[in-house]
Design goal:
39% helix, 238 residues, mainly alpha, globular, four-stranded antiparallel β-sheet, binds zinc ion
């Protein structure tokens, strides 16, 4: 077992160092919500939560790329157009939102992929799937390389880059044009905190794992992880 802390500085909620004013306090004043570090995952420099967050974003990147391509084809405003035309067929295509095209380009750039302007959503999905697959094949190396992890995190996870606000990170594209939320509550309580706060996130497609993410504590695993209690949770909740 490892006892190294997550290099992103994740702290355990409600768990404090002995030097922290909240340590041992029955009723902490709220100045510190937790300062003891979350352990890094075995074989990684980051905790389970950081490992899973980045990985899940990369796993669903092909879905957001195809979604953006679809929006670009329908003009990104199909609903509004239908309502305006009172159910009759619109006489001309609604204009394409340039943000959709910028976002698609940036998401594909992040994955080191390109698609021609006339690529269909399925073709974009296929291209992005290959590119994301190449990144995920290296994921064990990425989570062991502080610089590589920080770089991937930066272009994927923040909803805005302060130095490059117009850039569409993968998370920014998700936030602006959300995909359907397919997650649900798991049947068993969280192995980390024992609360019934465990979300089950089914795989975006065949070949990627199902994820279990606690909404209360930092516990997070997927169905290919094999440590501890998760196996029971996943087996019983499936
Ligand atoms: Zn503290
Ligand atoms: Zn972390
Ligand atoms: Zn929990």
């Amino acid at each position: 077992m490892t006892s190294r802390g997550c290099i992103r500085g994740c702290a355990r909620r409600g768990v404090h160092f002995a030097t922290c004013p909240a340590y041992g306090a029955d009723d902490p004043d709220g100045t510190c919500t937790g300062c003891a570090p979350v352990d890094a995952r075995d074989g990684a420099l980051v905790c389970h939560r950081c490992y899973g967050k980045l990985r899940r974003r990369l796993e669903t990147a092909p879905e957001i790329a195809a979604h953006l391509r679809r929006l670009a084809r329908t003009g990104g405003s199909a609903k509004r157009y239908d309502r305006e035309s009172h159910g009759r067929m619109p006489r001309r295509m609604a204009p394409v939102d340039p943000d959709v095209l910028d976002a698609l380009r940036d998401v594909l750039d992040t994955l080191n992929a390109t698609a021609t302007a006339d690529a269909t959503p399925d073709e974009v999905h296929e291209i992005a799937l290959g590119a994301a697959g190449a990144v995920l094949a290296d994921y064990d190396a990425i989570v062991n390389d502080a610089g590589a992890f920080a770089t991937w995190w930066q272009v994927t996870m923040p909803t805005q880059l302060p130095d490059w606000p117009e850039f569409w990170t993968i998370a920014r594209a998700f936030a602006r044009w959300p995909l359907e939320d397919r997650s649900g509550w798991a049947a068993l309580p969280c192995p980390g905190c024992d609360l019934r706060m465990l979300r089950r996130i089914p795989p975006a497609r065949a070949g990627v794992p199902e994820w279990y993410v606690c909404s209360s504590c930092e516990w997070e695993r997927n169905d290919t992880d094999d440590d501890g209690l998760w196996a029971l949770v996943i087996a019983d909740a499936a």
